Amino acid sequence: MEKTVLYQRHVDAGAKMVEFGGWLMPVQYAGVLSEHEAVRKRAGLFDVSHMGEIFVSGPDSARFVNRIVTNDVSKLQTGEIVYSVMCDDEGHTVDDLLVYCMGPQSWLLVVNASNTEKDFNWISSRLGGEQLKALNRSPEFGLLAIQGPKAAAIAAKIVDFPEGLAYYHFHVSEWRGSPLIVSRTGYTGEDGLELMVETGKTADLWDALMAAGKNEGLAPAGLAVRDLLRIEAGYSLYGHELDETTDPLSAGLSWVVKMSGHDFIGKAVLEKLKPARRKIAFTMEGRNIPRQGFTLKVDGREAGVVTSGTFSPVLQKPIGIGYIAIEEGRLAKHLTVEIRGREIPVALCKLPFIKPGVKK
Amino acid sequence: MEYPDGLYYTKDHEWGLEENGILVVGITDYAQGELGDVVFVELPEEGTVLKAGEPFGVVESVKSVSDLYSPVSGEVVEINPDLEAEPEMVNSSPYDRGWMMKVALSEPKELDKLMSFEKYMEYVKSLK
Fold it and tell me: Judged by CB atoms within 8 Å, which residues 314-353 of A form the interface with B?
């Protein structure tokens, strides 16, 4: 089991530690609901150092990256980021990731912790004879996410970045003599930043941010609230909405699959694909929470499955995301979720569940 | 963590307090800590007859759901009406305001099979 460099900080702060994707991570500190309130109203600080950083460089790197991801990165300028997925030859999802354009011949891929090795092997196997280099540099970097309406103002006290740094843009800066990448990204639906710094400086940066945010109510936030926040914001999570049996079109991610303009792995299959199921979002009355793996039914027939579910403190309702068979049509009037033998009606809605606070 | 003396405990982390043939049942401090923020407690109707070890309800927290098991056999004579509006009392006051149900014991000898506070303390330690 791996630990991030902040492990002792989390334990000392009273966090409950759990295994996640091969890593021992803080699942919660003060409690999910108080951490949720901190992030939605003030700011929360997340250790996401377990995430993977893969660098791709070389004269052919732009073309190569554009072939391994479904989004079109050919127009991306230095300092810009896009969200994308990587597919295999069958159009199934290898991972979802952020692509940073570090320069015309240099790219950073930030990938899911549990997929880092798989992604790196996949990318390496596709390099071929091109003038390319791929490096898994995950152990060299820590990654912190500071999220919430006050996040940028708190971070601005101690790190240098342009005040108007736009959503999905990053700034290469320096902090206490080490390189620091400040990006306006996140996984909570709130405004905020993600800060990538060398491993040896990560604990210092954590401490400095916590101190800078003390008066603003900055709270350390764990994986449980991260999951809750991303569900409210409607973001997919690998292992829930996405996996190696799922294509990005069924997953509602056609906006990151650019069919024109570039050729990418999986495109031939995805162009002809008629999805058999589609992603849905729903709310429920009552307090029974739909959980991953629960069955969705139409008129009593099994019609799909829940991929994520929680209780939304914003809506004060149970909320869920899942897949439902296409042949059920778009108006599933009698859609229910089976919870411990009982069928409970659900109301379809659009994602996100909450109004995002990100500054686009 | 707090585990009051004088209560009966189960391996599933329920506690029971016996008063004149009635057992007040709730979940322990350890259980509420493992669950995290409780948002819903589903309880049986009054008059339900339970057997020892039988599920009597569920407790939903933001991150997980857990079955509740009756420590004893008997009839449910009262449920905590406040938990519907304030399920968070299971977290903030697990042994007092967060109580869940009262059961009229039909087999009082079953209490002998439950753990004492000392045994439960040892049991919780063994889980860590």
Answer: 340
